[in-house]
Amino acid sequence: MAHLQKTRADREEGRYTSYLGPADEIAEGGADKRRKREKADAAELQALLSRRLTGYSVECGQNLLYKIEINVAGKPTHEAESLPMRGQLAFQTDILITKGPTPLVAIELKSGSFSTHDVITYSAKAQRHKRIYPYLRYGFIVTRSAGLGRRFVTHNEDFDFAMALRDDDLDEAALLAVIQRQIQSAERLISLTSSRRLNLWSYEQVVAVDL
């Protein structure tokens, strides 16, 4: 992956920041150029994960519900067999890893840099999705990046993992290890919540960082 580029053709929300200044951003094509770069990054990352994750589906631009309502007739607004659609209580994800009909890992991508607003907005989006899919693991990946920094740690609330991917030296093994651990975590949570009775001896959430 010589040039990891990222997906967000239909980004509904969020403010874009980059290493370019405001005047340079306009001169360089601004948000449109950034969206194209992000869309390409997501497609490349999706292709890599699809090749390496046997038995799972990896897709760009899939929708997930963020809310289910009960109407006056006592029926839910979303039927189990129907696909979530944007504009109908669903948000679009950049990359979604599923097994059968079950979403396991969702990823939000940014390219080059990100703002405080990005972290707050997408972390809140993760929270709303996880209310519907409590086993879902949600991540934040920044491509063409030198690192995540304090900004992410300070403002993150509901992302389960995050990674900064260098443009010139992508560590595929490290990326895959993180994604595979998140898939395993999602599957463990599904197993736990599917059991009527539990007799746990321990439960632990671990914070791991690579400085």
CATH topology call:
Trna Endonuclease, Chain: A, domain 1
Secondary-structure element order, N to C: HHEEEEEHEHEH
Structural class: alpha/beta
Silhouette: globular
- Determine Rg (CA atoms, Å): 18 Å
Strand order of the largest sheet: 1-4-5-6-7
> What is the helix tally?
5
Q: Summarize the biggest pleated sheet.
A: 5 strands, mixed
Percent helix = 25-40%
- Indicate the mean pLDDT: 80
Using the coordinates above, name the CATH class: Alpha Beta
Separation of the first and last Cα atoms = 23 Å
The low-pLDDT segments are 1-27
In terms of DSSP E residues, the strand content is 15-25%
Number of strands: 7
Q: What's the CATH architecture?
A: 3-Layer(aba) Sandwich
Structurally, the number of domains stands at: 1
Condensed summary:
This protein has 211 residues and is α/β, with parallel strands linked by helices. It has helices at residues 22-27, 30-52, 116-132, 149-155, 172-194; strands spanning 57-60, 63-65, 90-92, 95-99, 102-111, 137-143, 161-165. It has a single domain, classed as 3-Layer(aba) Sandwich (Trna Endonuclease, Chain: A, domain 1).
3D structure, described in words:
There is one protein chain. This protein is an alpha/beta fold. The chain has a single domain (22-193), classed as 3-Layer(aba) Sandwich (Trna Endonuclease, Chain: A, domain 1), CATH 3.40.1350. 36% of the residues lie in helices and 18% in strands. The protein has helices at residues 22-27, 30-52, 116-132, 149-155, 172-194; strands spanning 57-60, 63-65, 90-92, 95-99, 102-111, 137-143, 161-165.
